[in-house]
Amino acid sequence: MTDILGGTVLDPESGKTGAFDLRIADGVIQEIAAAGTLPEAQTDVIDASGKIVTAGLVDIHVHFRDPGFTHKEDILTGAEAAKRGGYTSVVMMGNTKPHPDNLETLRYMLEKGGQTGIHVYPCANVTMGMEGKQLTEMEALAAAGAVLFTDDGLPVTDEDIMREACKRAAALGKMISLHEEDHAYVKESGVNAGPVAQELGLTGASREAEYRMVERDIAIARETGCALDVQHVSCKESVALIRAARAEGLPVHAEATPHHFSLTEDAVRRYGTLAKVNPPIRTEEDRLAIIEGLKDGTIEMIATDHAPHAEEEKALPFVQAPSGMTGLENALSLGLRELVKPGHLSLLQLLRCMSTNPARIAGLPGGCVKEGAPADLLIFDPEAERTADRGVSRSSNTPFTGQAMPGVIQTVICKGKTVYGLV
Ligand SMILES: [Zn+2]
Q: Rounded to the nearest whole angstrom, what is the distance from the C-alpha of residue 230 to the centroid of ligand 1?
């Protein structure tokens, strides 16, 4: 048994906040009591005075590169980065080698994820080899433990295949997560089609690439009833389309990344390939539209798209360098710095977007602090400052290194055990 004493408990699910002590036993929250009133017992004690005690964060969009690209990250190093960022549940994307388009690879991911101490869930691919041609055995993959379907990294370009995938996913009660970038509108990836791209002698990736596919897939959601998740929304037109779809009652969800709500295309000028991501970081107007989407609930989830790449890969010329940045270790701090401090979101809203909502939407346990719930918890000080360091991910491709960040994590507990911080 462990008691967490003296903290301010904030349950992102119910919104209940106050001075409560928690007792955890057998991996669950056994009791929540007014501060100082837990019955006497022999327990370990974690002193949380001056800290927020909330649900462990949930990220439904991470790339752990395992199997196939473990020089960038593997499931174990990725999980360490997740813990350090306050996460107790993550969903791995499937652009690995081999892909999770088959049971053997899915089982490898589940087995290795099981060694990490946190909840590491695999997706399965929508199409074989993410080639967009032939659907996977979706029913068998879901039965074996895939929590959602995605070809993230690539769009599902063929409309008939997308429609068929949606029908099958809807029958399974599973969501399809979508990387919405029609390559017909992408000259060079990773930089917004605009002035910064021009300076680099490039055309870049246009906003049409994203919102035209979002528009198409909202129509498919309407037709099939399939739950869709628009990943890493990058432009204001997509936000508007998703807002309208949700007003219509369609099961359309969306994610924003910390980099899309923190940066503009100027970051490419300043940080070069470290700011090369797909879809690209766009204009201030787009950034503000994404924040507006988070504020009014159009965008329900913050997901990192944690995308590790080796230093030598990011050192390549802009066009050859791979897209993506690491994100797990700075996400909470960027949420505090860019959303809570300027008054866009309350701390409760931020934590909902980072735990309760992704858990509910992807059908995962966690994301709440209540009796009987899993003891997946995060204890942190939102006011304390730190400097973003290299981190513990195998890769460190982020432009945020060295920056001042609010938010210091004291302890992360998963399944009742301390997985990061004080032991
Ligand atoms: Zn993606």
A: 9
Provide the domain count of the chain. Answer: 2
Secondary structure letter of residue 235 according to DSSP: S
Among the listed residues 415, 377, 365, 343, the one whose alpha carbon sits nearest the alpha carbon of residue 51: 377
**Residue 368, domain member (yes or no):** no
> Which residues are in the CB-under-5-Å shell of ion ligand 1?
152, 179
Across-strand partners of 325? 306
Question: Both 201 and 309 in a single domain?
Answer: yes
Separation of 19 CA from ligand 1 center, angstroms? Answer: 40
How far, in Å, from the CA of 151 to the mean position of ligand 1? 8
Per residue of the chain (423 residues), what is the pLDDT tens digit? 999 999 999 999 999 999 999 999 999 999 999 999 999 999 999 999 999 999 999 999 999 999 999 999 999 999 999 999 999 999 999 999 999 999 999 999 999 999 999 999 999 999 999 999 999 999 999 999 999 999 999 999 999 999 999 999 999 999 999 999 999 999 999 999 999 999 999 999 999 999 999 999 999 999 999 999 999 999 999 999 999 999 999 999 999 999 999 999 999 999 999 999 999 999 999 999 999 999 999 999 999 999 999 999 999 999 999 999 999 999 999 999 999 999 999 999 999 999 999 999 999 999 999 999 999 999 999 999 999 999 999 999 999 999 999 999 999 999 999 999 965
Options 305, 376, 381, 389, the catalytic residue: 305
Same domain membership, residue 287 and residue 157: yes
Question: By the 8 A CB rule, do 60 and 91 touch?
Answer: yes
Question: Do 349 and 209 reside in the same domain of the chain?
Answer: yes
Residue 74 is a catalytic residue: no
Task: Classify residue 200: in a domain, yes or no.
Answer: yes
Tell me, in angstroms, the distance from the centre of ligand 1 to residue 307's CA.
9
Whether 3 and 38 have beta carbons less than 8 Å apart is answered as yes
How far apart CA 25 and CA 34 sit, in angstroms, is: 18
User: Could you tell me the CATH number of the domain that includes residue 410?
Assistant: 2.30.40.10
Structural domain harbouring 24? 2-53+373-421
Task: Identify the domain boundary among 362, 384, 412.
Answer: 362
Residue 200 CA, ligand 1 centroid: distance in Å: 23
Note whether 156 and 30 are same-domain residues.
no
- Is residue 124 in a domain? yes
DSSP 99: -
Structure tokens at 214: 């979002």
